[in-house]
């Protein structure tokens, strides 16, 4: 396939490609800026086919990613929020020798050359040959999974992965020449990068924000500037909460694509009143973004579901229990072609050609998928499978509880039992008995945590904010038992 | 990829799949009807992996094609208008043993079993396993090219060809859940079949018409029933001419996708006044429909152009003359994987991996493609390349001329010279001198036909109505010279 950026210049040179902090570039202008950067990079880069980048959502960072892609380099997208030791692990694993970094990054990284953006944009232009074609089988990006259960894995994403991801999304959400998609999620994550790739494939405007500025984004939406936004649950809530009572979004604004967890009823109701469709979705770095999505009209009748597999995607739930809960497995042309240096782990993820997501779930009679938790989080208690998520969701309704995490601890009689670690809201607390009583009202007996502990340290979290239960289990002091 | 029809039942069971003569079927209903037909077919079909079908645009014909596809058979789509000897050639070439035919077909075909639809729909149900997956590399349909230059060739189209065709079209025209596409072009041609395949891939309503009933179709468009229609030039003209003066189409109606030749200025102006975009396009059976298209906003500034290559398609003009005219060559994932039994011809169509379309054309400075004619039609006269189309277009402006075709005849001095065969309008004629004088006003000297002949027989045409110039040259009596 022809290089997507040059193809866009051929097809829609005047159409807006990106808007950032008041600047607006057409595809022609973006292409020219990127080509110039590629020429400057050529005078700075060594021969390593992999180049890492450390950037927030800035126009220059955006252009740098595209410039590396134009040069045919594999872009290793580093999470800007990681600690230097975490970054060092990834750089070493990916055998990277040079890191392009936004000027505001001040940490020192060992064994690599760090190239601030300002040094690149000041460099002389070297002659380069840009990649004329994008081979769908070629790995163009590598991202490390946040790793709720171990060492990060470098996920290799091909042009074909990104292409089919964009196609699957368009077949689900539709497509129009005047679409404009807000990228306020990080472009170093698949959620943000997939918006960039869609922009090239669709000829679509991206509205890039360095920070999730809820007031500014709401103002831009209300002003009719965009059609679509990718959000995680907290962003969705913030946008809707900040909307003045009785205000609605304009009809141009069609879709809030929600990843990273389900939405709650109150938020979905607010979205409906505001006149925008919330598309809850499920996907991962390994599938180059969403592969399962819920039609907004099903949001209330199918509350809690992540929906159905997109057109190019196949889904099955394998190894089902008698209640129909099993492993979520998929086939998809968006599926990564490998974990860098961990092909054994990659191959071990497959069963009969199906990729095992590591998530557990079930499908209802009409095929809608519901997730119940990660495989590793499942607690096997007296022959019953207990999923922390379900228990947490119930307790999260208590106003005294700020956050709760449920883990399994071994038990002589039951094999394992659920216990809860709780962070109370400022000045609040509950007794053991009150917690047990509440659980028994809403949960099967075996799902009610046997013991409750007060959080004594910070929550151990991944870079993307998810609680790492396996660390909680190992490291958290479980002595502060609630009586 | 999962079977597209069953996938549609999973994703959008209630959405309308097809409307025909007042009947409306959802994807669930269509799937049930198709599955029943497949079970009935199973009790009638032999083991031949290829099955031919002879049908006009009827609901039963539509369902039969899908049923054969569900059974994993390769569907040989026969042109209903062909003579029995022409059909016999294709049946023999494709090694077909059974032909499903609409009941109104009354001709006898040798060496095959003819199965009228009514016999199939009355057959008992047999157990069958429907194809669970559509392998993108699998040949699912075969269509014979109309052959302006020789024996028809069986074009093998894979699921992948149809998938990428639908994707390329969506990336160009956009996509919406409420799209509805008129299929009044034959479903045995790629123009019609590609609408059927898009319907499965997009989850889109097809509005099927057995005949091009201009009044009914215009009424349905005005009534807001559809968003898109595929047309050839005469259909486009008829629709716009029948529209009451001052009337406009509703905003829901977005696109008239024009194939089979360019439009004229008057028609484009009418379309603009009627408020609908005309997307002129270029494609062929070998590319599973359109691969090049002209944005409606470019229709007037780029008059005469067929546009630019769709997103998944690459285009080049090779072996250019000094004026930039050359062979139109393409790369496309929609490109046929072979000509049945004529792989030598197929392979001979490629140059450095580019498929040679057999058309001649040029690109302007902004990359828009203009076609000047078929390679075989080009006349090499005194070192100049002369294209019949250009000359015909000029003479076609004369009100006395009903139709004109220009061919080359050998000439001792110039190598070859253009001559014209003319069909005058009833009671009209022009002298040799008048024709020469008119030509000299509008054309370079060497392009003005040396001699003019009155048409003495019928025009030799392909099944799709194109004049076969090579037969004109060989067979037409060129004695009735205009003096």
From TrEMBL, chains A, B:
Matches recorded under SUPFAM superfamilies: Acetyl-CoA synthetase-like (SSF56801)
Signal peptide: none
Leading EC class: ligase
Catalytic activity, reaction form: 2-succinylbenzoate + ATP + CoA = 2-succinylbenzoyl-CoA + AMP + diphosphate
Pfam families: AMP-binding (PF00501), AMP-binding_C (PF13193)
The UniProt record lists the keyword ATP-binding: yes
Stretches assigned to the AMP-dependent synthetase/ligase domain: 7-340
EC number: 6.2.1.26
Biological function: Converts 2-succinylbenzoate (OSB) to 2-succinylbenzoyl-CoA (OSB-CoA).
Ranges where the AMP-binding enzyme C-terminal domain occurs: 390-466
Family: Belongs to the ATP-dependent AMP-binding enzyme family. MenE subfamily.
Pathway: Quinol/quinone metabolism; 1,4-dihydroxy-2-naphthoate biosynthesis; 1,4-dihydroxy-2-naphthoate from chorismate: step 5/7; Quinol/quinone metabolism; menaquinone biosynthesis
Keywords, sorted A to Z: ATP-binding, Ligase, Menaquinone biosynthesis, Nucleotide-binding
Protein name as annotated: 2-succinylbenzoate--CoA ligase
Keyword Ligase listed: yes
A single MF term (Gene Ontology): o-succinylbenzoate-CoA ligase activity
GO biological process: fatty acid metabolic process; menaquinone biosynthetic process
Family annotation (InterPro entries): AMP-bd_C, AMP-bd_C_sf, AMP-binding_CS, AMP-dep_synth/lig_dom, ANL_N_sf, MenE
Native species: Weissella minor
């Amino acid at each position: 396939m022809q290089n997507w950026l040059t193809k866009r210049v051929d097809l829609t040179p005047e159409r807006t490609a990106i808007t950032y902090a008041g600047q607006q570039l057409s595809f022609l202008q973006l292409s020219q800026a990127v080509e110039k950067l590629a020429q400057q990079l050529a005078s700075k880069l060594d021969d390593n086919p992999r180049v890492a980048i450390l950037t927030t959502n800035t126009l220059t960072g955006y252009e740098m990613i595209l410039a590396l892609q134009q040069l045919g380099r594999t872009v290793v997208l580093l999470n800007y929020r990681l600690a230097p030791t975490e970054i060092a692990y990834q750089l070493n694993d990916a055998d990277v020798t040079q890191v392009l970094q936004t000027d505001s990054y001040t940490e020192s990284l060992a064994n690599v050359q760090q190239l601030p953006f300002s040094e690149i944009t000041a460099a002389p232009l070297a002659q380069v040959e840009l990649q004329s074609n994008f081979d769908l089988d070629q790995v163009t990006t590598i991202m490390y999974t946040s790793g709720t259960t171990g060492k990060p894995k470098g996920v290799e994403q091909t042009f074909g992965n990104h292409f089919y991801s964009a196609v699957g999304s368009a077949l689900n959400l539709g497509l129009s020449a005047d679409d404009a998609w807000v990228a306020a999620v990080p472009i170093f994550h698949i959620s943000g990068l997939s918006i960039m790739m869609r922009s090239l494939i669709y000829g679509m405007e991206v509205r890039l924000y360095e920070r999730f500025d809820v007031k500014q984004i709401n103002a831009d939406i209300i002003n009719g500037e965009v059609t679509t936004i990718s959000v995680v649950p907290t962003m969705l809530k913030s946008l809707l909460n900040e909307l003045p009572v009785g205000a609605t979004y304009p009809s141009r604004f069609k879709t809030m694509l929600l990843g990273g967890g389900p939405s709650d009823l109150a938020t979905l109701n607010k979205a409906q009143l505001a006149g925008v469709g919330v598309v809850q979705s499920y996907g991962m770095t390994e599938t180059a973004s969403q592969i399962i999505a819920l039609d907004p009209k099903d949001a209330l009748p199918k509350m809690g579901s992540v929906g159905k597999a997109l057109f190019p995607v196949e889904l099955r739930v394998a190894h089902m229990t008698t209640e129909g809960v099993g492993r979520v497995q998929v086939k998809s042309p968006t599926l990564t072609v490998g974990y860098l240096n961990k092909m054994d782990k990659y191959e071990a993820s497959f069963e009969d050609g199906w990729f095992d997501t590591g998530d557990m779930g079930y499908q209802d009679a009409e095929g809608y998928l519901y997730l119940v938790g990660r495989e590793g989080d499942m607690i096997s208690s007296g022959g019953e499978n207990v999923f922390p998520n379900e228990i947490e969701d119930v307790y999260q309704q208590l106003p005294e509880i700020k956050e709760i995490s449920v883990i399994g601890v071994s038990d002589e009689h039951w094999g394992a039992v659920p216990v809860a670690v709780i962070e109370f809201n400022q000045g609040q607390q509950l007794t053991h008995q009150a917690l047990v009583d509440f659980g028994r009202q809403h949960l099967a007996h075996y799902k009610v945590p046997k013991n409750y502990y007060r959080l004594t340290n910070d929550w151990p979290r991944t870079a993307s904010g998810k609680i790492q239960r396996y660390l909680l289990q190992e490291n958290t002091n479980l002595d502060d038992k609630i009586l």
